[in-house]
Amino acid sequence: MLMKVSDLDGRALNWAVAYVLWGKPRKSEHWHCFDTGNSDQPQAIVREKPRSIQEDEYNPSGNWAHGGPLIPICDVYLFPDTDGYIAKVHAVFEDHPDIEVTMHGSTPLQAACLCIVKYLSRCNDEIEIPDELCEVKS
After folding, report:
1. Rounded to an integer, what distance in angstroms lies between the CA atom of residue 81 and that of residue 44?
2. Smaller CB count within 10 Å for the chain: N or C?
3. Of 121, 131, 126, 135, which Cα lies nearest the Cα of 19?
4. Cβ-based neighbour number of residue 81 at 10 Å
5. Which domains does the chain possess?
6. CA–CA separation, 37 vs 2, rounded Å?
7. Mean of the per-residue pLDDT values of the chain
8. Burial of 55 (0-12, 13-18, 19+ CB in 10 A)
9. 1-48: per-residue pLDDT in tens?
10. Pairing state between β 43-47 and 31-35
11. What is the CA angle 108-23-57, rounded to 5?
């Protein structure tokens, strides 16, 4: 399902972060496995619903051990806002120099992850997320 980056949350956001960092995952019956290329953590797993996010899952939007290290790596700046946090990245691409990516989230990690997804997807406003990871809001 094509989703606006600004609407991503939970597993869909975690999957999107993993996708922009490591590319297409291997798909199993109930999970998506990303090869990280890191010997300390060679794989990152995002499970499908309906279970809540488990401790062994990749959860950068909800676990500082996963999302925290991405903030300095991607040069994300975080600022408190009246109803959450603002994350900014100064992006420089060969064909689009000097772009500022700004995203808003309810938590610092959510804001940072949204900003990272938009930045690493070259400022696209939408990203394709597997249907089984999407929460449809009615």
Report:
1. 31
2. C
3. 121
4. 12
5. 2-130 (3.30.2120.10)
6. 27
7. 89
8. exposed
9. 999 999 999 999 999 999 999 999 998 888 889 998 888 777 888 888
10. antiparallel
11. 55
Could you count the other beta carbons within 10 Å of the beta carbon of residue 54? 9
Q: How much is the pTM?
A: 0.91
Nearest CA to 101 out of 138, 83, 76 is that of 76
How far is residue 6's CA from residue 121's CA, in Å, rounded to a whole number? 13
Contact 8, 16 (CB under 8 A): yes
Structure tokens at 13: 């956001």
- The span from the CA of 76 to the CA of 56, in Å, is 25
Task: Tell me the Cα Rg of the chain.
Answer: 14
pLDDT band at 138; cut points 50, 70, 90: very low
